[in-house]
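Exercise 7.
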Amino acid sequence: MYNERIVCAYLYPITKYGYPPDADRTVDYLREMKALGFKNVELEGIRESHLQKVYDLKDNIAENIISLDLNVSYFCTVLPGLSLPDKNTKQQQLDLFVKGCEIAKLFGAKGVLDNAPLPPYKFPADIPVVRHYNDEIMSSAYLPFDLNWDEYWDNLINTYRTICDIAKDYGLTYQVHPALGLLSSTTDSFLYFYDAVKRDNLRFNLDTANQFILNDNLTLALRRLKDHIDYIHISDNRGKKPEHLEIGKGIIRWDIFFETIDLINYKGLIGLDIGGSESSIDNLDIAYKNSADWLEKNWLGKK
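Solution. The predicted structure, written as tokens, is:
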């Protein structure tokens, strides 16, 4: 089995089976990630119906986590409606978030994780069920003409204080995941957001590929965010579009990145977050294995 600091992210079953993958097959995904050699894994509850299904199955999933001798390091609660100003929508999302925290605690997770807040965009229909808000999707979005930004921001900050407090009640951190088109997805914007929310369990899930495409200098981010990160998503990128490639298949300077990881005395986990429909990967299993082997040889093997 791979070193327990290396986590197989939920992007693995997403890439194999679609977004979201069938929640009924969660135990199968656990078996597949273990068969790759991973002891630590991610699981997710994606939007309303998928998260509810995982909640309904949580006891059976928890039993299988134990029987398979796995650790679920983080449970992702993907609820983009939390950042919307509508009170009814927000309350429904908060109720689901509580269920997500209950799942995470039952699974023994360190924290819950979600994308950074979605700005109060209007879309032609409901919020698209996608992992990334690419240029095509964003071109159809617009801000309401009557938006009062100060009022929206105050409401958003209060919501995320509530979210962090709920997570803390369950003994969890709340990890913000950066991506194109979202608020607080760069070093500067997260630190601004953190200063506003003022909750110690608000953490930044540094994502190498996503921040690289946002031109957020990775080594500078590590230095500036060293007190705010304990979970990092790792994948490579070629600098032209959002994609999540095997380590070494892009142009990220991993030598400098891991020198900085050691410099800041990082003690957290590394999640291999490889794949997605946006990425050109011939063999997903080999990409995960090669990347885990690389980490063990070039990072963990030097300790």
